[in-house]
Input
Amino acid sequence: MTQFINKKEDIVTEAIDGVIRASGGALVRLDGYPHIRVAMRADWDRSRVALVSGGGSGHEPAHAGFVGPGMLTAAVCGDVFASPSVDAVLAGILAVTGEAGCLLIVKNYTGDRLNFGLAAERARAFGLNVSMVIVDDDIALPDLPQPRGVAGTLFVHKVAGGLAESGADLATVTEAAQRVIAGTLSLGLSLDTCTVPGSPKENRIPPGQAELGLGIHGEAGIEQVSYDSAAQAMRLIAARLEAKMGPGPHVALLNNLGGASALEMSVLANELAASSVGDRISLLVGPAAMMTSLDMRGFSVSVCPMSEADAAGLAAPCPLAAWPGAKPLGPVETRRLPDGLTPIKPLASSHAPTEAFLRQCCEILIAAETDLNALDAWSGDGDTGSTLAGAARALLGSMEALPLADHTQLFRAIGLELSQTMGGSSGVLLAIFFASVGDGASGGLSTQDALRAGLARMKEIGGAEPGDRTMIDALEPALDALGDGLAAAAAAARKGADATASMTRANAGRAAYIAADRLSGHVDPGAEAVARLFENLS
Output
């Protein structure tokens, strides 16, 4: 079992109970498990129009996560990706509907239309005033007579829910919902399929491909396309949306389909702002997981033109944790660095041999990126290669601004560059190393002695010594042998690096938290980087 569940038969009821327990008393449920699963507001008094939505589970936080003031009154939950029964929907309607009436918000799937529709008819037979709207915002299949309802449904929940909360009548709430539905467009893209509890995972999307327009129930998309970056993925989505968008400003909703990290979603938000529709987006909802497809590693974008009143309703505060709010999509503003942090740049100077040497060092580290990352995955977080390669690329980019003809100032400049561009503790330690080397060189030390002085300072501040399974295990013997030439330094570095493979205890760095069996037989990635650098230089 690779999911945090007990039994697949109980996953929906247990999840609903978990949401209710964590609501702080804001939610309750109707009795009737397991056939009737309705989460509803604990404070509801039937004095206003009720909003009821729902459908299959697996889209969390939809639908129970959006039950509360300003949004839904009740959510009717079916099995994973399966519509709730007619009786369950009817129970939800009867539990929350008073004289003001009830609006059903239904996504355009056959099961939902039929079950919610029949429940509405039966509720009307009880004398209740019930209206129903169908959300059909998915544009993945342009010739489909009945497009699916996907994440754009949340626009309807918020706009209609806000009106109902303010006391608007059923006709007004229904008209607003229909107006939002008419303008909403949505499209999604994913790098992987979802994992349905208790079922084998379908691996239909090959590496290097993404699926465009797949549904929130894991249905296959309209096509598989090549994938190479977040920017390319967002350009594709934006172009399809733009072709169908009307004039004027729109609100947008950036939805995590379940498996993308928050870091990735922030990158996608940046790409959405930079896309062909970015300058037409006045408000952005998200990025957040709102209408998911279990653990699907994808995202969707929904857009809708809205009147000032509807946009204000969308942006109105809402106490629900699942609703991320709607905020203006603006530029990236910057502020000047505080005094003391703005770098004092040395005068740039040229020196062809030094530049060639530095470029060679940088290219060696960039070439080793993948291997070092793989090695670091055994003892750290798998980013040693990327960290060093990123610093190398930054150094290459600043080459023309370096004092290449003044080695004393050059060491300090390299230290300053690394402190700003190289992340993690290794970036700080190497910045200390080069700054100290520069100090030593300015005091009249030879290059080898200045390098040793830099190493001594790095050991002092970093707290690592030879035998602690760090880059020092290769760097110290290399610097000691440097007086005999690069070949001798390379051999010493390699010997020191290889020795770390037999060290089953690290006394510094992230490897200090790793079990011995994970370390045994694997060279420390920092030491390997030093060894490769000297070997290639020699």
Observations:
- Confidence is low (pLDDT under 50) at residues 510-517.
- The two ends are 51 Å apart (CA to CA).
- The longest helix spans residues 424-442.
